[in-house]
Design goal:
two-stranded antiparallel ribbon, alpha+beta, 2 strands
């Protein structure tokens, strides 16, 4: 697996955004949580057909980046839900823009 370049040292708002949500699954996970109201791992995994290890990694990045919050809802067995923070809710404007662009330009032949 190729390690991606970190943008954390770049003095650019776009680069700072990509540092947290630049992996291609991340906007889809945020879409499911912020727009779709999905908060549980199994819901997101099933909807996206994403490998559990990849989803675990992406959720951890989104929690660490401050877009999602991980809350335990069951102790036996331990289960967690993922809830959008204020930063995560604000990402909806980005998702809306991506949706608009994808609707207009997403099927343009290459």
């Amino acid at each position: 697996m190729v390690k991606r370049k970190s943008f954390s040292e770049m003095d650019c708002p776009v680069a700072q955004c990509l540092e947290v949500v630049g992996e291609w699954w991340s906007p889809l996970i945020l879409r499911n949580v912020v727009v779709g109201g999905m908060t549980r791992f199994d819901q997101i995994q099933r909807d996206l057909s994403i490998a559990p290890n990849v989803l675990t990694d992406r959720l951890a990045t989104l929690v660490e980046g401050g877009l999602l919050e991980r809350n335990q809802y069951s102790t036996r067995p331990p289960r967690f839900e993922y809830v959008a923070t204020e930063a995560g809710k604000d990402f909806k404007t980005v998702l809306d823009a991506m949706c608009s662009w994808g609707t207009k330009w997403g099927n343009v032949p290459k």
